[in-house]
Amino acid sequence: MPRRMMLSPPRLPAGLAPRRVPALLAALVAMVSVLLTSCDMLPVAVQTDAPALVGQDVRLTIIHTSDIHSRLLPYDFDPSFTDNGLGLADGMGSYGGIARIATIVNRERAKAGRVLHLDSGDCFQGAIIFNQYEGEAEVRLLSALGTNAAVIANHEFDLGAQNLANQYNAWGTYDLMAANYDFEDANLPWATGLETASLPSTIYDLDGLKVGVIGMANISSLNSIYDQSNSEGVRVLEPEDILPREISKLRTDNVDLVIVLSHMGLTEDQEMARTIPGIDLIMGGHNHVVTRPPLVVVNEETGQRVPIMHSGAFAKFVGRLDLVIRDGEILSFDSQVFPVDATVEEDPHIVDIIEEYEQGIEQSYNTDQIIGFACPPEENCDKLTRYGSTGGDSMLGNFTAEAMRSFPNVETEIALTNTLGIRADIPAGDITIDDIYNSMPFDNAIATMVLSGTEVQDLLDYVAYRSTERGCNAQAQVAGMSFDMICDPDDPHAENIVVNGVPLIMDSVYELATNDYIANGGSGFDVLERNTTKTFTGIAIRDVVIAEFVKYWSVPQSDADVCVEDGRINPIY
Does the pTM of the predicted model rise above 0.70? Predict the structure, then answer.
């Protein structure tokens, strides 16, 4: 059953000198001995009143994780410049791993008095362990960490809502939070399971300090869920419709602090803090960013300053936020972000659990199998990157799109796949099966369809629109075409579209290879969802990419455009 309360060890009363403790303990032992020898009653627990906190400065520590994305086992990657600035140094790999996270969580928990461990969701999807065990390992190990609460996020639905309900009900011991999902009207069998399992809000009594936590699950990506039943029967409630009610309920129960545990995204978190009164603190996720120090947003109605903390993604960091609270007001706060690298020892209890899953993966997948090299041995090459250096096309994006359109029994004129379907760079050197699963964890397959020239224009206009919202970073990768991506906030669109060397012809037709996720309208690709010529090939994109790496063996090659940026997507700000 989900845990509702975690009490910290009792503290010495103020003014009690340490040297008096042995004498007091001796007297207490003597008193208990007399009681036990003078009657036949068994000893019973003694109820003690919570300490009086009115007018007192009270310390609260929040340990924070988010967007672990199945990185339960350590993995290799090249830290970015931003990672370096946050303390994740080059050459300190492997990185991540839940056993290392456990060491940090337990260490920081031991240093604190009143403490909560909160997770901002997306523990599912991103490594081979999820493909094999469908979320069991993630829920079980998050529970083993002693996590108090985790909010439901979009990737928790990646194998369906029924799978989420099954895994949590079998393994979850933390509070699963979602105030803004209403399963009540659904007739589907999983709806009752999730409605029963998840809580809109809960209260933790931490040695007299009452902390209310409200879960705000992801909304923006709910239309991206591709399982046929995920988005059916779930009524999404907007923050302004649900938060005031939950805040009022918690205040009626005399909580000292209201925390929103969010997977809404940083922009949405700032909007909630700015417009909805009564929130004291937001612990968020979804955008894979670290806010150090936490952002502070002033509520426009009350003038209250609301801290917002995000702690990164992919098991690279664990956040800690220390608060000083008096009579329900945050007087001050301090934050730390701890990098998860090879210098952190692995917690032996967690190692024992995860070894069960690791052995199963090794039996099912030859994860260390080398399928190619990120560059020829004689060349000094860098990693293969998921993002382009200019915000346009990328090395892995071009490689993937070209592989999709040229694969036997596909062989289309053009290809387009979403950039976020590629989740990680591939380090220089040997390319293994594990590298491919880390980079391409989704089980997407190729879909083909016929588009008119007008539909191609609409498709690339939408890519420009989505990319403009994200800093003019291309949200799709293409093959067989090139275009200027105009990131004008008032009129985002595509210009100068060229298909295989010929300018786009509006009344012509073109055969497209894409992935089944966006073909079904994922990430808002309505122009593809509306198309009635779709064919679902069942050919896994990850298998296509593996075959392409095996084919070239050493990539990129200096004498061929195999895995390089070539400017086919040209961002114009």
Answer: yes
